[in-house]
Here is the input.
Amino acid sequence: MVRASFWFGWILSLQVALFWCWGVPSAVALTPEQQLVLQAWRTVNQAYYDESFNHQNWWLTRDRTMKQQFPDEEAAYQAITKMIATLDEPFTRLLRPEQYRSLKVNTAGELSGVGLQIGVKVGSKSIEVIAPIAGSPAAQAGILPHDTIVEIDAVPTSELTLDTAAVRMRGKTGTNVSLIVQTADQSPREVILIRRKIELNPVTAELHTENGRKIGYLRLSQFSAKAAEELGENITKFKQQGATGYVLDLRNNPGGLVQAGVEIARQWLNEGTIVYTVDRRGAIDSIESTGTALTDAPLAVLVNEGTASASEILAGALQDNGRAKLIGTKTFGKGLIQSLFDLPNGSGLAVTVAKYETPNHHDIHKLGIIPDRVVPTPEILLESAATADDTQYLAAVKELLDN
Here is the structure.
């Protein structure tokens, strides 16, 4: 049996090798444009989370693509984009050099434009709002999570990719961009926004006194590279000032760096699983707590329909481990993890490499997380968050005071 298995594997390897030589010219003969396309194919082939590649022969897709002529980089980009489009999964995408640089800058904590985090609406190719950045032109104009962006400067978003839509909304500070926005079943409306530089200060921290008890209020707007360090400093400061409970506000937090979410979970959890990741072969790996919690004081977490991705990892970890009660409305439901890969000419690929599950193996993608106590989202401005007008915050405080 062992010998038969060995020979089967050897024959299969030989077949693959022959197929490779037959389908693609030798590496010596490849032009820079061909190398770019081939490297993009290889990256997806090695990393993409769906081993069926959307139920298609991914090797045949490579051969068909490599038979084309690529007279310049633009032709190569178009070929890569068309190849990836066959996966029918919007988060795996080509990032041209400008887009790639911009994305890496954003996760470092800087952003310019109108302040919208966008995605692709489930079941369609429409561009939808995940969440507006707190204090941004988009937030001030009343754009909401799950709103549909119908047009950008008179260009239908049905003709745009996720990244080209994002690029169109960016621009020089002080310039205008016109959006046609639709909320649920309402009529589309025009919103004119003035672009500006948006400082992503990921943490807002205030020490409140509620019924004689000190409550640390921490709002986390995005999981940038600075988020865990800043949050940890404020938890420690509030602990020294006598905080007996905490409210962690993840409302309208669209996510960001998954590692930042993991590090923040470890600031609240001394033990237990934080998240499970499931790869293309169904293999399950876990990320665990490390005994580094900064406080064991009671915690309530505010979530809503704009709480997405890394925010859902954090919220799910705290809920399933019994560390916190979740207050608010069902979260967005983005449960796929992307990694960034460099391509030879300064461009890159965002590739979905896994999906994640909460510690209780709840699949978040397209489903979201149901809070322990459902409280409708109040129609208030950002400056009214965590005040007497914020019914979700008041419910979180009551949860802490009752414990």
